[in-house]
């Protein structure tokens, strides 16, 4: 049933048979086939507490927005909830460095100021994860430069102390037993490393002195991230 509270793409997805949705790049985004649930983004007012009685899990964010995990059988009920003003489905995000760099006034080949050291700078990256074992994210003594890591896929948070314990385990395999967060696609590792080197690096004899720290959020499920998980990471950083 169409609802004026739902975005058109969500209404279309709900009307489309699952077999057909699976062949689409967009219509099945947000749907968990194993759990038979939908993740949706809602604009709401007052409280979402009563949604729990229908098995709906709410992850509240700032400015009256929330991410809901909704059993498939209850998805159409959302339109009947007075507190909910608007419902939309997640969108698939594709990795692109060039447009972001250009928007940040950093075009490929641009000179980097020699005055930028990165000291006292905290770089927050919400992406596909981060390879905490990589030397780019470690101090000279081998300890981590990552002050905080939130893995939304694992639904776990890791502190610098936990990451350091993993790094001291002796091998990458042993480290992953303690902190099992990984960057499968390499997108987060590349972007965080690039930002620290480009924006917060000091060139000395062709080498950059890395002095900034990182806070990382893994927002990727599968090969591509989805916009609602990126929003949750931004909400945390805010």
Describe the structure.
The protein contains seven helices and eleven strands. The chain has helices at 8-15, 18-21, 98-103, 160-167, 172-178, 187-199, 227-237; strands spanning 31-32, 37-44, 57-60, 65-71, 84-88, 122-127, 146-151, 156-159, 201-204, 207-210, 213-218. The protein is elongated. A hairpin with a 2-residue loop joins strand 9 and strand 10. The protein is of the alpha+beta class. The strands form three sheets. Strands 1, 2, 3, 4 and 5 form a five-stranded antiparallel sheet that branches. It has a four-stranded mixed sheet with strand order 6-11-7-8, with helices on both faces. It has a two-stranded antiparallel ribbon with strand order 9-10.
Describe the structure concisely for a colleague.
The protein is α+β, with helices and mostly antiparallel strands and 238 residues long.
List its salient traits:
single chain, 238 residues, alpha+beta, 4-stranded mixed beta sheet, 11 strands
């Amino acid at each position: 049933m169409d609802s004026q509270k739902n975005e058109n793409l969500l209404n279309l997805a709900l009307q489309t048979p699952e077999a057909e949705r699976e062949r689409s790049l967009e219509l099945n985004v947000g749907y968990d086939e194993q759990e038979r649930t939908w993740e949706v983004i809602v604009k709401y007012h007052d409280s979402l507490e009563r949604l729990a009685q229908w098995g709906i899990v709410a992850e509240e964010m700032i400015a009256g927005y929330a991410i809901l995990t909704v059993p498939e059988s209850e998805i159409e009920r959302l339109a009947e909830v007075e507190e909910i003003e608007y419902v939309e489905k997640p969108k698939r995000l594709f990795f692109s460095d060039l447009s972001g760099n250009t928007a940040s006034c950093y075009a490929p080949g641009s000179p980097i100021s020699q005055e930028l050291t990165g000291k006292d700078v905290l770089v927050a990256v919400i992406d596909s994860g981060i390879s905490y074992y990589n030397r780019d994210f470690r101090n000279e003594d081998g300890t981590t430069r990552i002050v905080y890591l939130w893995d939304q896929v694992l639904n776990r948070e890791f502190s610098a102390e936990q990451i350091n314990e993993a790094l001291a385990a002796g091998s990458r395999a042993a480290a992953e037993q303690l902190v099992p967060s990984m960057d499968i696609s390499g997108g987060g590792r590349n972007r965080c490393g690039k930002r620290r080197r480009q924006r917060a690096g000091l060139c000395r004899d062709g080498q950059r002195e890395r002095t900034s720290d990182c806070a990382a959020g893994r927002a990727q499920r599968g090969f591509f991230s989805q916009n609602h998980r990126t929003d949750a990471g931004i909400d945390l950083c805010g």
